[in-house]
């Protein structure tokens, strides 16, 4: 799997949640409890301790650099994550199944691998998908974020930060930390939030593509009861890459 991201620009997302954005607030408080190892598997978290010692994990077919031999990787949860549930969601809900080795599949897997590193590795020097010295993430025309800045914020906060009026913000990135942002999404979408490439418009070194992100609102979200409905959005992105030699992403321009 090539590791080639240099810059990504992401465009305006269209959010679709069925008939309503959120159900009415409920008065029943939710109890936050520590996830069991089985629950951690379902949430795409790392399994550690005795279970990890006994578990032989096959390489993820959609993500490179998940199980690296001889690498001193610092994983956020003590070990590499398990993506079984979100992979099932992806396979059952995707609208496209790209041929193996196609540009669409390469781009799709590159972004999934980048997200893996951003969500589960704690040191930028452990990233294999990007060039840390050149990488920039630009979302909706805002000032670009470096690799370190993106890692500090986390993918959800970096991508969902918005200048909309407060009353329209169902998710406020300014109020969330890296950890709380992931807790929110794992709670609301227990099977994960799947991602696919819908179309690639131009080839390397500047790759423009359309994507879809989706999941099912099956868990509580900040006091709102789950409805089970599909939540999805679409966006455009421009990814600048080093395509020759050691391939890495230099940047993302994201319009969502």
From TrEMBL:
It comes from the Eukaryota. Signal peptide: none annotated. InterPro entries: NTF2-like_dom_sf (IPR032710), Pathogen-related_defense (IPR053218). This is OLC1v1023267C1. The lineage of its organism: Eukaryota, Viridiplantae, Streptophyta, Embryophyta, Tracheophyta.
């Amino acid at each position: 799997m090539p590791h080639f991201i240099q810059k990504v620009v992401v465009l305006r997302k269209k959010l679709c949640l069925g008939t309503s954005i959120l159900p009415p607030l409920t008065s029943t408080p939710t109890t936050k409890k520590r996830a069991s190892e089985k629950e951690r598997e379902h949430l795409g978290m790392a399994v550690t301790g005795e279970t990890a010692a006994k578990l032989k994990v096959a390489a993820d077919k959609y993500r490179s650099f998940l199980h690296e031999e001889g690498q001193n990787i610092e994983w956020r949860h003590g070990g590499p994550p398990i993506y079984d549930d979100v992979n099932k969601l992806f396979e059952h809900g995707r609208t496209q199944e790209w041929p193996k080795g196609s540009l669409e599949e390469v781009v799709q897997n590159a972004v999934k691998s980048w997200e893996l590193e951003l969500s589960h590795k704690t040191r930028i020097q452990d990233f294999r998908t990007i060039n840390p010295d050149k990488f920039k993430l630009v979302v909706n025309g805002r000032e670009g974020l470096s690799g370190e800045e993106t890692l500090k914020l986390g993918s959800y906060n970096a991508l969902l930060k918005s200048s909309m009026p407060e009353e329209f913000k169902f998710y406020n990135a300014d109020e969330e930390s890296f950890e709380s942002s992931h807790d929110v999404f794992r709670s609301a979408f227990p099977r994960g939030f799947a991602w696919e490439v819908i179309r690639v418009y131009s080839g390397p070194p500047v790759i423009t593509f359309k994507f879809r992100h989706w999941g099912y609102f099956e868990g509580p979200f900040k006091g709102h009861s789950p409805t089970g409905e599909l939540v999805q959005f679409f966006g455009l992105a421009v990814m600048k890459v080093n395509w020759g030699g050691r391939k890495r992403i230099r940047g993302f321009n994201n319009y969502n």
